[in-house]
Amino acid sequence: MTPIATLDVPRYMGTWFEIAKYPNRFQRKCVRNTSAGYALQGDGTVRVANRCRTAQGDTIEAIGQARQIGAATSPKLEVRFAPAWLSFLPMVWGDYWVIDLDARYQLVAVSEPRREFLWVLSRTPQVDAQAYEALLGRLTQQGFDTGRLERTPQE
């Protein structure tokens, strides 16, 4: 898997809507309106706020922190949702690699080296079908099984 060449982290900040994902255990209660909000902090880390709606209509929110790995333009980040006092433990950090991103920073694919997780995010709740299909083609070329992707309803 190859991440993108460079990432402009300040430009990446803001709200992203989940368009599709590989099903995973930590989002099992999320059924619609999943989004991620990213905000750059003074220390260079990123505040992560993930939100979704459950089948019962409740909102679930998980607050975490991300940090860039390597150079200031590195597309490789690590994210954690464990308490800050556990941040010294390597196992509480998960890889968050930007593997595809359009030039306008409107549609992104995020994964990690083992390809166990995959998310497709967009700046808007709905994504252009042609842009989505083109992204799926690029993900297939990187060895992802796009048939595993589960679309996320956005209202």
In summary, what is this structure?
This protein is mainly beta and 155 residues long.
What is the arithmetic mean of pLDDT? 94
Category by helix and strand content: mainly beta
Instruction: Quote the distance from N terminus to C terminus.
Output: 32 Å
Spatially, the strands of the biggest sheet line up as 1-2-3-4-5-6-7-8
Approximately how much helix is present in the residues?
10-25%
Q: What is the C-alpha radius of gyration, as a whole number of Å?
A: 15 Å
Number of strands: 9
Identify the overall geometry: globular
What proportion strand? 35-45%
Query: Segments where pLDDT lies below 50 for 5+ residues?
Result: none
Tell me the major beta sheet.
8 strands, antiparallel, barrel
Helical run tally: 2
Helix-strand sequence: HEEEEEEEEHE
Structural commentary:
- This protein is mainly beta and 155 residues long.
- 11% of the residues lie in helices and 39% in strands.
- The chain is built from 2 helices and 9 strands.
- The protein has an 8-stranded antiparallel β-barrel.
- Strand 7 and strand 8 form a beta hairpin.
- The longest helix is centred in the last third of the chain and has 13 residues, at 129-141.
- The N and C termini lie far apart (32 Å).
- The model has no long low-confidence stretch (mean pLDDT 94).
